[in-house]
Design goal:
By secondary structure, this protein is α+β, with helices and mostly antiparallel strands. 42% of the residues lie in helices and 12% in strands.
């Protein structure tokens, strides 16, 4: 059975950009874009698996949902779309940031309310290329997830709901290896799913408490915690540190100088305290990045190791 809900944004709204941060690569089995432009998500909610279709209907945004988690997904639809986010409190303090803010009035920080859903793919993205991480996520969901409820199974790429904590814990070592996931990342995921309920509680915590809760798990550091909480909690100050590219991009965009590290980035973003993640998003949207000098990282095949 399909249930529906609509939500009306109070101003300009960029559905594609706002939901796009949840997509883990073009073949993500849990996130697809239909031929009609609608966005489909397959999620494991506290009430069970659910599928959510999101699309513009005139000036409103309509959500349709299927499965045991349908009501939970629709209850959280406004928060997912950024209803709790208040971009009006953001004060640009640099010409480039001001221009990006002006050009992207529809940017909102979304909130899924689901920690594990963002934590596990963030762990898979540790210290590897996006291509490697996206491939691992795709293969693990295809082999160990379950079919998404409702009509999503008829999508060109069949949608899958990620495994529940017990199913993650039962994935044998050779299946992790087959997906190209090394022992360090798979062990971190296994430690996380053993305390899944406690980690999900972080969705209702403030940034400091939520980050501390996640970082109790060996293998989860500031980078992984920030990447998770940006999506699960919609936290505007969850700035990513420990990233290979972000400090260099922020440093170059704001000063024109190369080689900024985390310390320099945090100093540059200090005027945006409380909104540093939003400021970084706008800087990335400006498109001002340092010209590439070094070759791209080679993709490692952990299956051959």
């Amino acid at each position: 059975m399909c249930v529906r809900r609509t939500w009306s944004p109070s101003g300009p709204y960029d559905l594609a950009r706002n939901l796009g941060v949840l997509r883990r690569g073009p073949g993500d089995p849990a996130f697809q874009v239909g031929a009609d432009g609608a966005y489909w998500r397959a999620s494991r909610t506290p009430a069970g698996p659910g599928t959510l279709r999101i699309a513009h209907v005139g000036a409103r945004i309509e959500g349709r949902a299927w499965g045991p988690g349908a009501e939970w997904l629709l209850d959280g639809l406004p928060a997912l779309l950024g209803a709790d986010d208040d971009p009006s409190v953001f004060v640009p303090r640099h010409r480039l940031v001001h221009e990006a803010h002006r050009r992207h009035p529809g940017l909102r920080l979304i909130r899924t309310g689901l920690v594990l859903e963002s934590l596990i793919p963030s762990i898979l993205e540790q210290k590897v290329t996006s291509t490697e991480a996206y491939r691992a996520w795709r293969l693990l969901l295809q082999r160990h997830g379950e079919p998404a409820p409702g009509p999503a199974e008829r999508m060109p790429t069949r949608m899958r709901v990620m495994p529940d904590p017990r199913a993650w814990a039962l994935i044998p070592s050779w299946e992790w290896h087959r997906a190209g996931v090394d022992g360090k990342r798979s062990s971190t995921i296994l430690r996380a799913v053993r305390v899944a309920r406690r980690l999900e509680e972080a969705a209702s915590m403030d940034l400091a408490a939520a980050s501390a809760r996640l970082r109790l798990i060996p293998g989860i550091g500031p980078w992984t915690a920030a990447e998770t909480l940006q999506r699960s909690n919609g936290t505007p100050d969850a700035i990513t540190v420990g990233d290979l590219h972000l400090p260099r991009i922020v440093g170059y965009a704001l000063t024109g100088e190369r080689g900024a590290d985390d310390e320099a980035m945090l100093e540059l973003l200090a005027p945006y305290a409380g909104q540093r993640h939003r400021a970084a998003r706008l800087i990335l949207l400006s498109g001002r990045t340092p010209p590439r000098r070094a070759p791209r990282f080679a993709i490692r095949d952990f299956r051959a190791m």
